[in-house]
Design brief:
Layout: H1 11-27, H2 30-61, H3 72-117, H4 120-125, H5 128-170, H6 173-220, H7 222-227, H8 231-284, H9 289-331, E1 352-362, E2 365-375, E3 380-385, H10 391-398, E4 406-411, E5 414-415, H11 421-426, E6 428-431, H12 442-447, H13 455-464, H14 468-473, H15 491-505, E7 509-513, H16 521-535, E8 539-543, E9 555-560, E10 563-568, H17 570-576, H18 579-607
Parallel strand pairs: 3-8, 3-9, 6-7, 7-8
Antiparallel strand pairs: 1-2, 1-4, 4-5, 9-10
Helix pairs in contact: 1-9, 2-3, 2-5, 2-9, 3-5, 3-9, 5-6, 5-9, 6-8, 6-9, 8-9, 13-15, 17-18
């Protein structure tokens, strides 16, 4: 997938921008966030209080046997604090669960909607496997960031502050100083090594996306792979990406071990020095055995979150890197946008006019040159020409998959750029040359033309498209699954499904982009009769390869190299003896040759 980099700001600024993107979703549930933070603080107060109560219990038990009394109240308080710490933590998770999952849902939906707003240009260039993996990792990153940033980093900092204050107030300042210095050394070391490791994670993500893209692309083109016997070739290409991922993954693991060993060394030094100070205090009589237990308990309580803090920080940085790629999709500009004052298109007559239209997919390669023609309301205009002449581009421009480079396209005298895309596309029905179906059943794919249609209307549309009897002959009928991209159906069957759903939509304007190219002669004649019937009451643009299918067109446009070189009726164009007449003769000769070959094959089989 090609993502633009937009002259990216420094990594640290990008991280804050990514975090800032989530703030509106948190603000929606600000009451829940505040309650969760309150429960978090209560849990940490209970956790820090446990060593204090434990010290009192140890001191109460560390007395001569004659003076020993069971500290029942302290033991009950110890149990209550343990329970409170767990209970407050679980309540916090319950309160915050809706915030996390609603945020993920909203962001995922926003990305999904934005991808549908992007132009056809973007979707022709994107790689589906890598993009889907980026979205998957990005949503997982949101979950991790919200939970661990709020409920691990913040409480750990809060707990460290509580412990530092207790050590400073109750004991020698060296206890507090050594604890703070140990934490500073730990954090600085973690930040430095983690930043160094980030390059490995980013590279791993890229290699992972490339490998996934390669796998998805190969599996989607399963038949092509089989046709050319390239299974081993595809496996090698996939393994090349996995090999690159493996090298980076090994380096990532080595750097992780370096980080963990360094963190362990820093903590070990801090713990050893503090225990030496506490032990010396007991020997000198300035500290009790309970004080040693207290210091040790605090150290253990800080050691675990500190060790986890390193992991959390690493994962947050990784999550931010993952989210950055997903949010990069949201930053991708939409080439075709509704104007702020765009109104609804109300088709009254259905007249279409291409007015001196120029168009280029790329500035260095212009496709259309001063294309100018009109389709009167209720009439049929056909466009023919050689491959690459720009015929299909006309349908894409009419549907506003792209905006014209120069000139304009009018429907009932209104520039299509002045109306909403939704209302424009609701008024046009198109049967494309390359029909792609959803991986669902036939009923769903036909109903997609108008999802609220009744079953009777769907069956009627299938009948008009001459596919109803075929569907009924299938074991599962309309519930038959069509497979990925409709590969379980033949090209002609897929095209008839596409025709049926366009008939079901019943728009005022129709566009057929070589709609019968995948049909046999018998089916084509039947479909042509149906298309002629519905086109009689619609404004119709027909893009055709077979000239025999557009003889009845009110006007035929002949295109070459993005220009209209001839126009007229079938009879008029034949009379001129130009490009159209030459194309007609060639196709007639091909048809005669095909018929003679069919007759010859029939005679051969009869003799056999």
């Amino acid at each position: 997938m090609r993502l633009r980099h937009y002259g990216k700001p420094p990594a640290r600024r990008r991280d804050w921008m990514t975090i800032g993107t989530l703030l509106p979703y948190l603000w929606e549930f600000r009451a829940r966030v505040l309650i969760a933070l309150g429960l978090l603080a209560a849990a940490k107060v209970a956790n820090v209080s446990i060593p204090l109560v434990l010290k009192e219990i140890v001191d109460a038990l560390d007395r001569p046997r004659v003076a020993l009394v069971l500290p029942v109240s302290l033991l009950l308080a110890y149990g209550a604090l343990r329970l409170g710490n767990t209970l407050f933590g679980e309540l916090r998770d319950v309160v915050f669960a809706k915030v996390t999952h609603r945020s993920i849902r909203r962001v995922a939906l926003k990305v999904f909607e934005h991808l549908h707003l992007l132009s056809l240009r973007f979707h022709l260039e994107r790689q589906m496997g890598g993009m889907s993996r980026d979205i998957e990792r990005g949503t997982a990153g949101i979950r991790f960031l919200l939970n661990f940033m709020l409920f691990n980093i913040l409480p750990t900092i809060l707990e460290i502050a509580f412990v530092a204050v207790i050590l400073l107030v109750k004991y020698d300042p060296w206890f507090c100083l050594i604890t703070v210095l140990t934490l500073i050394a730990y954090v600085v070391f973690t930040l430095m090594i983690t930043e160094w490791r980030m390059i490995f994670r980013r590279t791993m993500n890229e290699m992972d996306s490339k490998a996934n893209t390669r796998a998805v692309d190969s599996l989607l083109n399963y038949e092509t792979v089989k046709y050319f016997g390239n299974e081993a070739y595809e496996a090698r290409r996939y393994d090349d990406n996995l090999q690159s991922w493996e090298k980076v993954a090994v380096r990532n693991q080595i750097s992780l071990s370096v980080l963990n060993a360094g963190q362990g060394f820093i903590i070990a030094v801090g713990v050893t020095v503090l225990m030496l100070l506490a032990s010396r205090g007991v020997v000198q009589g300035t500290m009790t055995l309970g004080d040693v237990v207290l210091v040790n308990a605090f150290l253990l309580q800080l050691y675990m979150p500190l060790h986890f803090l390193g992991f959390v920080y690493r994962e947050i940085r990784h999550s931010l890197a993952d989210m950055e790629r997903m949010f990069g999709l949201l930053e991708h500009p939409t080439d075709v946008r509704d104007r702020p004052d765009a109104g609804e298109l109300v088709v009254t007559r259905g007249q279409i006019r291409f007015e001196h239209v120029d168009f280029a997919y790329d500035p260095n390669r212009q496709i259309l040159h001063d294309v100018d023609f009109e389709i009167p309301a209720g009439r049929k205009v056909a466009v023919v020409g050689t491959s690459g002449a720009g015929k299909s581009t006309l349908a894409r421009l009419l549907f506003r998959f792209y905006d014209v480079t120069a000139g304009r396209i009018l429907i009932d005298g209104r520039d299509i750029r002045d109306v909403t895309q939704k209302s424009l596309r609701a008024a046009i029905g198109i049967v494309p040359q390359d029909t792609v179906l959803f991986n669902d059943n036939i009923y769903y794919n036909i109903a997609y033309g108008r999802p609220d249609a009744t079953r009777a209307e769907i069956v009627r549309a299938a009948g008009h498209a001459h596919i109803h009897h075929f569907i009924e002959s299938l074991p599962d009928g309309y519930d038959t699954l069509v497979g990925e991209r409709g590969l379980k159906l033949s090209g002609g069957e897929k095209q008839r499904v596409a025709i049926a759903r366009t008939m079901l939509k019943n728009p005022r304007i129709l566009a057929f982009d070589e709609a019968t190219s995948a049909l046999d002669s018998k089916s084509e004649k039947a479909i042509q009769a149906a298309l002629k019937e519905i086109a009689a009451h619609h404004t119709t643009l027909v893009i055709a390869h077979r000239l025999s299918t557009i003889i009845d067109a009110d006007q035929i446009l002949v295109m070459e190299h993005g220009k209209i070189v001839e126009r007229g009726t079938h009879r008029e164009l034949l009379g001129r003896g130009g490009v159209y007449a030459h194309m007609w003769r060639l196709q007639q000769e091909e048809e005669e040759h095909r018929q003679l070959k069919a007759v010859g094959n029939g005679l051969t089989e009869g003799n056999l």
